[in-house]
């Protein structure tokens, strides 16, 4: 699946809280009283890759192994279960590709219970070595419950120390299996250095807390058995026909189309611009693959349409 740089930059904009005006040609400067809030509207002809990108969920970035295990079991064995005290890596309604087929994942709750968790923190700095007298243990020498706990503590990217400069993970609850705490090396002291991948991570025990442990039940519904069938499915499900559009709003859509990936700014929108925003935001969630992202059929052409709100 290919990336769409313009999509990523706009989403990064939302996530970081940076004003959209700073990125847009013709917008009053960031912080200008002429453009204190508004929207960026971008419309580009939709491609097959964008239909896939916008409607499919990629493997979880921090727990790809758990993601694959959940999906494979749901597809191949009709059901999978996953127990965690953190957010689950697969959400209800996620659409996924697996072994050439396309599926919608349904998630329900099979069990929910309050348990005691140990709160662990981890710190790594490539330039920092364990101090003299510190407890240093190779990862492969840890008991299995500690290895599982460390994998849970460190997101996937942070496990590859050879590629990391430094990171800190603070106060993450980890639940040990029953009767395994007595085997633990990590829980036996306040600080333990774990050496692996040519580096050393300091793991600290911060205490305990009560947390909710949830067991999720997953099932998979087949949507299509190949790529072309899936593309036909999502076009049917997500392409929205705008129908009759007043001339004043057509002018706004035309400007957005002419601007291509750069998009246009609707600064403090009123009149036709406000009507366009309201029209887009009124599209049902069931026809919205991502927040403020749609596939619009406008004058016989399907456009990938994104509306990004900004404020100074």
Please specify the SSE layout and strand pairing.
Blueprint: H1 5-16, E1 37-45, H2 48-55, H3 64-76, E2 80-84, E3 95-98, E4 101-125, E5 136-138, H4 144-153, H5 156-159, E6 166-174, E7 191-196, E8 199-224, H6 227-238, E9 239-241, H7 247-259, E10 264-267, H8 271-281, E11 293-298, E12 301-311
Give a brief description.
The protein is α+β, with helices and mostly antiparallel strands and 312 residues long. Helices cover 27% and strands 36% of the residues.
Keywords for this entry:
single chain; 312 residues; alpha+beta; 2 domains; seven-stranded mixed sheet; five-stranded mixed sheet; 8 helices; 12 strands; elongated; disordered N terminus
Radius of gyration: 24 Å
SS element count, helices: 8
What's the rounded overall pLDDT mean? 87
* Topology, number of strands: 12
What portion of residues is helical? 25-40%
Shape: elongated
Instruction: Calculate the terminal CA-CA distance, rounded to whole Å.
Output: 34 Å
- Return the string of H and E elements: HEHHEEEEHHEEEHEHEHEE
- The fraction of residues in strands falls at 35-45%
Poorly predicted regions: 1-33
Largest sheet: 7 strands, mixed
Number of domains: 2
Structural class: alpha+beta
């Amino acid at each position: 699946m290919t990336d769409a740089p313009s999509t990523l930059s706009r989403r990064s904009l939302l996530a970081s809280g940076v004003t959209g005006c700073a990125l847009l040609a013709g917008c009053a400067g960031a912080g200008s009283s002429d453009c204190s809030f508004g929207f960026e509207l971008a419309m580009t002809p939709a491609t097959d890759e964008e239909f896939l990108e916008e409607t499919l969920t990629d493997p979880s970035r921090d727990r790809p192994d758990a993601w694959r295990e959940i999906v494979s079991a749901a597809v191949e064995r009709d059901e999978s279960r996953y127990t965690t005290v953190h957010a689950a890596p697969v959400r209800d309604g996620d659409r996924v590709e697996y072994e050439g087929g396309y599926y919608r994942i349904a998630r329900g709750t099979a069990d929910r219970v309050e348990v005691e968790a140990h709160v662990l923190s981890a710190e790594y700095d490539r330039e920092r070595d364990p101090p003299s007298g510190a407890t240093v243990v190779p990862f492969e020498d840890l008991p299995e419950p500690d290895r599982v706990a460390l994998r849970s503590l460190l997101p996937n990217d942070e496990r590859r120390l050879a590629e990391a400069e430094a990171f800190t993970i603070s106060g993450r609850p980890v639940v040990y299996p029953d009767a395994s705490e007595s085997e633990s090396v990590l829980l036996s002291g306040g600080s333990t250095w774990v050496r692996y991948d040519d580096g050393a991570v300091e793991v600290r025990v911060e205490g305990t807390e009560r947390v909710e442990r949830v067991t999720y039940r997953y099932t998979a519904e087949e949507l299509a058995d190949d790529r072309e069938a899936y593309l036909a499915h999502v076009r049917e499900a997500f392409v929205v026909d705008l129908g009759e559009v007043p001339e004043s709003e057509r002018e706004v859509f035309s400007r957005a189309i002419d601007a291509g990936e750069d998009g246009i700014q609707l600064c403090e929108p009123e009149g036709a611009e406000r009507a366009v925003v309201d029209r887009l935001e009124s599209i049902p969630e069931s026809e919205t693959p991502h927040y403020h992202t749609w596939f619009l059929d406008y004058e016989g052409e399907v456009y990938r349409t994104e509306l990004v709100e900004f404020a100074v």
